[in-house]
Amino acid sequence: MQSSRFTSKLTLRDESMARHVGHLGSAHEGSGEWRIQRLTALALIPLGLYLVASLLRLATHDRVTAAEWLGSPAPALLMILLTLASLTHAAVGLRSILIDYVHTQSRVFIVSLLLRSAAVILAGASVLAILKIFLGR
Question: I need a surface site. Which of 16, 39, 96, 99 has the fewest CB within 10 A?
């Protein structure tokens, strides 16, 4: 009889403790970020290999040839995807590090906001630059 009462007290204590610490650290939203991190990492493998192969092929050519290459639809699309995937991967990874090592909620919010803003600005500028070359302007 006393064993079951002791077990139920432990169970209640463990459940209460899980509720107490469930919101701490990156555990409160880590699943979605983990998934995005892994998907972008998988996307970066073929995109990165394509970039390396293209750069090796273009290494002996001049700037005009490289601009003509980026003016084609497939390379432009793949470079936009590479840019967006790499910036997303970097932003999620840096935010994860930030959450793990910065313990003040206000600092996490401010730096996270700056990080996401920088990623959006860099993504926009990169996509616009690629589109400018693609459209020939």
Answer: 16
